[in-house]
Amino acid sequence: MLKVTPVTKVLLWTAAIIVAIWLVAPTIVVIPLSFTDKASLVFPPTGWSFRWYESFFSNPQWTGALWNSFLIGLLVAALATVLGLLAAMGLRNLVNKKLAGALTVGLLAPMVVPGIVLAIGIYAVFLKLGLVGTLVGFVFAHTVLALPFTVVAITAGFANFDERLELASQSLGASPVRTFFRVTLPNIIPGMVSGALFAFVTSFDEVMISLFIKSPYLQTLPVLMYASVTRDTDPTLAAAATVILILTTAIVIGALVFTGRKQRG
């Protein structure tokens, strides 16, 4: 292990603090902006008011978009977790490691392919299938982006799983299905929860693909926020961003508490 002098420690801590502030500051600034009493996004606020939260929650367009994002996020989390579990199990049981590696690359491709490329491809296919502007279309499109995260999280869960537990269960007469639900599944739940969390946040925050497949009757909160930015600088936008921040933070904390209890149990 390298020895670090006190001066070096101070420099490293200073660098870490600067980087942390650089990353967190844009997020934190949104919160006071949402309480400004002005009709524009001016920082720092000169006065305080809840008028923009009232504007957000009293406007059916904003609340409808929030509900759409939440519902789509939940459906995507469920679908991506199930598909990710099936994919991880398939990769785990493949004897041909080269084939498993190739399939893994294919499953993780949406993480590295430019979003605009995916958006155009999905739009072209969905337009032909009549899925543009539909709830099913949004769920399927967002699942394409979310699936790699669930595959990675669940595969990591399997990596920490002792396969001898399955062998012991089956040697005692349990069927493969019973072994899966009573032995395997409880041990990989933390990975599944992590994957579902990433899937939800990925869907809830998605803009690029949503812009291509939205309709006047169905749009998500990020899409409405993007449209609002192009029209004006109404601080309702900051209120919407704060709502997203609070919601995602609460979900992350809840998931961490849940997985922590599971791991301790």
Automatic annotation (TrEMBL):
Gene3D superfamilies in UniProt: MetI-like
Topology of this chain in the membrane: Multi-pass membrane protein
GO biological process: transmembrane transport
Main localization (coarse): membrane
Location(s) in or outside the cell: Cell inner membrane; Cell membrane
Domain of life: Bacteria
Transmembrane segments annotated in the record for this chain: 12-35, 65-87, 99-126, 132-159, 180-201, 237-258
Keyword terms of this UniProt record: Cell inner membrane, Cell membrane, Membrane, Transmembrane, Transmembrane helix, Transport
The name this protein goes by in its record: ABC transporter permease
Lineage: Bacteria, Bacillati, Actinomycetota, Actinomycetes, Micrococcales
